[in-house]
Amino acid sequence: MPTPPRFRRAPLAPAAVLLAALALPACATASTGAPGTEADESSGRPHGYVEGASEMPEAQLQLTTIDRDGSATLFDLLDEQSAQLATLDVAPSAVSTDGRFVFASSAEAGTLTILDSGAWTVDHEDHVHYYAAEPRVVGSIAERGEAVVVGGPSLTGVWFGDAGVGLLLDTEALGQGEIVETARLESPPHKGAVVPFGDGALATVAGADGRAAGVRLIEGDGDAVAASDAACAELGGSITTNVGVVFGCADGALLATRDGDGGVDFESIPYPQEVSAADRASGFDNRRGRPVVAAVAGGRGAWLLDTRARQWTFLPTEAPLVHVTAASDTDDSVVALAEDGRVLLLDPMTGATLAATEPLAASSLADPALAPGVTLQLDADRVYLNAPADGLVYEIDYRDGLRVARTLTVGAEPAFVAETGR
């Protein structure tokens, strides 16, 4: 039987938070509100007001790059200017973003450093707000091993799998430059995640051999919700869409959606045919929040999962892939990075190559020290590919046959890259 996590309320100022462990360039540190925080009408403040931030007429798109020495640089995609954000004490082994905050984790040191890029977008479906504020280092958390981080509007989930420790952080507090725990989770160590979900989160449940075997709903203070467990054998990876949260399982996917009472409905979406362990979906990615997600299918191609239709599509490809992402746009664009360093535009029904670049990242993928950080960052119009061996980031127009729109020198070796402001 899976071993359920033990939950306890955590103090709001954990000793593990290290706020002074980083070297910062001299700059102002205006207090910013939470992403999407809006003032009460009685305050007289305008709709969309966020304290410490300026509302902008367009998205303030930028790239945060981190080199192998831990130097973090902000590159403005509008004016192509770069500025150093911070120097991390330890170079990261993994970097992710929620569109505003950049999460740099070091497996060796067991630390997670949170950077505020100072640029974000709030989508209210019928209208959008764009914000800019002073970028800064929020702080660091020390545990053991690499952290998996999933951002959310009100809560941010952190999971240290080697330690068996999960955290729920107050996202609004992150915007104010503080790390505030609302809950701390303790469980047998396993590869898992804590994924924000409504006012709480979905936490993985430990199984055998250091893997997760299921998912459980927890409240924002860490209390487990009764009768909210769902099985997901050999759980591997998760992603949030505008439909719900997807977890990869041995037999397909587990989709978690909100029920009418503030709880959770779990639904299994099995693979359309028997799939070997090597060819299961891994590394889900998409244009943030969209309903269709993509994942590498071993060395055979890619998987697409439409979370609205509850349907898998297998795409055999001409070359093995290291990364694939779905735009979920009007053309159902699927963009992939092949092992040979080419970027491919795939037919969303057959997997056939519709367009391909030159092998832009071949040297980077051939270097074992650089390959783990090479990735695709996709937004509504462009996809960004970092080629750290060449010191470049490529901006590619995937709507125009993978035309290389710009070749960017971002001011530092882009061993890791994260697009923010979207």
Provide a short characterization of the protein structure.
With 422 residues, this protein is an all-beta fold.
Describe this structure in words.
With about 425 residues, this protein is mainly β. The protein has a domain at about 1-15 and about 145-270. The chain has two helices and 37 strands. The strands form nine sheets. Strands 1-16-15-14-13 form a five-stranded antiparallel β-sheet. A hairpin with a 2-residue loop joins strand 17 and strand 18 (about 200-205). The longest helix is centred in the middle third of the chain and has 5 residues, at about 170-175.
Give a topology summary.
Layout: E1 6-8, E2 17-18, E3 54-56, E4 62-66, E5 71-76, E6 82-87, E7 94-97, E8 101-106, E9 111-116, E10 119-123, E11 128-132, E12 136-142, E13 147-150, E14 155-160, E15 165-170, H1 171-175, E16 181-186, E17 194-197, E18 200-206, E19 212-218, E20 224-235, E21 238-240, E22 245-249, E23 252-258, E24 264-270, E25 281-285, E26 292-297, E27 301-306, E28 311-316, E29 321-326, E30 334-338, E31 343-346, E32 353-356, H2 362-366, E33 376-378, E34 383-387, E35 392-397, E36 403-408, E37 416-420
Antiparallel strand pairs: 1-16, 2-12, 3-11, 4-5, 4-37, 5-6, 7-8, 8-9, 9-12, 10-11, 13-14, 14-15, 15-16, 17-18, 18-19, 19-20, 21-22, 22-23, 23-24, 25-26, 26-27, 27-28, 29-30, 30-31, 31-32, 33-34, 34-35, 35-36
